[in-house]
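BUG: 3D viewer hangs when loading the predicted structure for this chain

Environment: internal workstation, default settings.
Expected: structure renders.
Actual: progress bar stalls at 90%.

Input used:
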Amino acid sequence: MTDLIASGAESSEFNVLAVPIGELIIGTVAFLIVFFVLGKLLLPKISKALEDREQAIEGGLKKAEEAEAESARLAAQNQDEIAKAREEAAGIRAAAQAERADIIEKARSEAQAAAAAVTASAQAQIEQEKNKAGSDLQRNVGAIATDLAGRIVGEVLTDNATAQGVVDRFISELEAASGSNGKA
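Structure tokens produced before the viewer hung:
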């Protein structure tokens, strides 16, 4: 191959591999002009577009980091609020349980007081009924005793004072007799 090039240089024949100098200079100048025009007009726009894109990406990353930090802060704040709410709920439950215990104790005390009042009222009524029954019994026994005494004596005891005295003495003797029998 070097022989061909060497032989081409010696001969004046046309060589396909040889580049004409005029075309080389024109091509180089045209290339430099296009390179210069593209470098001055297009390269700044491309550089500006790349810088804008880089700034947009950096801004997006910065916003994402800020959003992540804000999210973490809000999550921590929510956890704190949840913990406070749980503590407050526990306090409310404890207060409600204490209040419930107080209400139960008050109701129990009121029920016991009402029961004691009903019991006292019932005992007082029983005592009244007992006294009434005793006096009714005493009157009936007195009337029966007066009638019986009149039959035994053979005369009618119409004097109330005399009859009452006889009845009272008879009841006293009965009570004394029953008291001595219980002791003996």
